[in-house]
Structures are given as C-alpha cells and as structure tokens.
Amino acid sequence: MVHIKRYLNINLPEKQSCFLWGARKTGKSTYLKKRFPKGLYIDLLQADIYQKYFKNPERLREELKTKLNVSVVIIDEVQKVPLLLDEVHSLIESLGIKFILCGSSVRRLKSTGANLLGGRAWKYLFQPLCYPELKNLNWNKIFNNGLIPSHYLEKDRISKFLAAYLYDYILPEVQYEANLRKRESFARFLDVMGISNGEMINYSNIARECGIDAKTVRTYFEILEDMYLGYQLHPYRSKAKRQTITEISKFYFFDIGLVNYLKNYEHKAMLGSEAGKSLEHYVFLELIAYKNLSEKEEKIFYWRTKEGYEVDFLFQDKAFEVKLSSNINKNHLKGLLEFRKNHDFSLHVICLEPHKRITTINQREITIWPIQDFLDALWDNNIWL
Fold it and tell me: I need a surface site. Which of 56, 125, 276, 286 has the fewest CB within 10 A?
C-alpha cells in the first residue's frame, strides 16, 4: 500500500486542543491515527458510538474521568453531536486533556450555536494532496483522478469512485444540511457548477438552469463552503481609476477530478481550453493549500475590469496569470500590464515554458515561471524574496 507523508504538522503545546476541519476522504482520520498513535480515538461515524454520545453526551466526561493515563482524545466527525463540545470545554478546564476535534462540516455547529471553545482550540484545515506531498506532476492523474488521496492512487474505475463521492456522499450530506426533501435540484446544481467552476457566479442564471430560486442557490454555495468542498474567490477591491467588477465572486471546487467528472471531460494532453481551465484550477488549489498550511493571513483575489482585462490571482502583492502555453508573448500579458498601471504588484506568469526567465515590457518586469519551478519556489518560500 502506498503511503504519502502529509505536509501538515499538528504540534500542540501542553493542554492545547485544536479543531481539524476538512472534506471527507481527504485523509484526516488516517493522519491523526499516525500522528497521535497513543490517543483515544472516538469515531462518531460508527452508529453505536454516535448513538451513545448523542443520547448521553455526559458519558464522555464520565468515561474520561476513569482514564487517567489518556492525554490526547480524538473525536472524529464531532459536528454530529454538537453537545459534546460543552463536555469537551469542561474537560479541557478541569482535567487539562488535549482534544483533537475532527470534522467535515462546520455548518451544523454554527446553526445550533454549539460551543466552539472560545479560543481554547486552534484551527487547522486538511485538504487533498498538494505538491510537496507528491513532488510529481502527473497531469493525467491530477486532472482525471483528482487529488483526494484514495482517488489519486486508484489505477482504474476512477469514474465509479468519483460518482460515488458526488452522489453517495455529497448529495446525502447536503440534503441533510439543507433539510432538502428531494435531491434533484442539488444534483442539477452540481451539473451546472461543473461547467461554471472558476467562472464568475451568476446566481440568477444558475437558479434558472436548476429550476430553483436564487436564494436557494446562495444556500447551496454556503453549504459547499461550510463542508470544505469549495472556495469563493472574491474580486480585488481596487482604488484605482479604472472601474473594476467588485461585486461578483468566482467559485472553485476543492478537487479537479470531481469537476472534470461533472463536465464529462477526460484529460489526455496539455492542449485546449479545458486543459487550460484545469491548470488554472490546480494553481488556485496550490495557492489555497500553501496559504492554509503555511498559516498566511493574506487573502487571495482575482481582478477584472468591465473592459475584460483580467488577472487570475492576486496574493501577497504578487499578480499571477496562468497560461497553458510553452511560448509566452506580449498577447498573454495584457491583463497583467493593465493591472500594473495602477497597482504596485510584481507580475508573474505560470506556464509550460521549459525555463524560468524575466522579460521586460513597457518597463515592467514579468517573471515567466515553468509550473514546476513555480511550485518549488512557492513551497520553499522563495517566491516572496
């Protein structure tokens, strides 16, 4: 069995607890069992365990008072029994036990007003595989299988695994989270979002295609974010003279393989618009993973004007454009050059050229990054030098 060492390192001081959030099947449970092999593991996905604590959450306190040698307690899918968090709070205060609270949706806790421990627990995010965990750019696997660990490692029948994830996990979970009587409208929403991934969100158009109202569409987006299944990318609110589109966000799913399955797209070569969209999606997910795993506070934005000039990503005073090209020329740089007229950002293109270089156009330096060089520099923190 292939073992992939995960990049995240949860290293908690004495008596410090944490939440570990992330979508299902990203590897949270496997990671925690390896990272804390002597911890007491409570899995609320098991029906009997769930029923025990759901009916009597105080059982946790009563049991742990007898386990004096237990210093770390892992509760998996903690959102299923929100009242357990009151017991956890009490045990942190009275016994000094370290808790690792693992979950795949914060929505249930927020909606019930659950005790989120008031700063007594740090927050970590667990995501699908990222570049430093693989160090290998197998585009067929990345684009077709996606980066959920078990999917990425699958050698065949990947479409069955992707379908099961979408329709046997996401659909029932969303139905529960949104109190839906029927799943059909959300299933249509998923199909539309496969096509709309990475595009500016038009709630009215999506609602019309799905046969629902715009308010319901907004709720679906909120649920996907609360379940760590996607991210909204907000536009950069510029003070420059040129009027920018500031009210429309984009949305990216947390996994490329799921999106390409929804689009019925199979990647075979780094050619065409769909491969270009997948490369842009991949770079965004790497930036998100780097931001979260490196605990960077700065947000990621995109920029677009009403005239159609656009920059894919803005992060830490750097502007990034992703191009599926092995020969970058001035035509690829219009958005970056327009943006730089009023913003003091360094300019970068991430592409398929074989060698890194710096070009100067209109007295503006632009760094041309081969995709792997960019990823090496990003994760080594050299891109910010």
Answer: 56
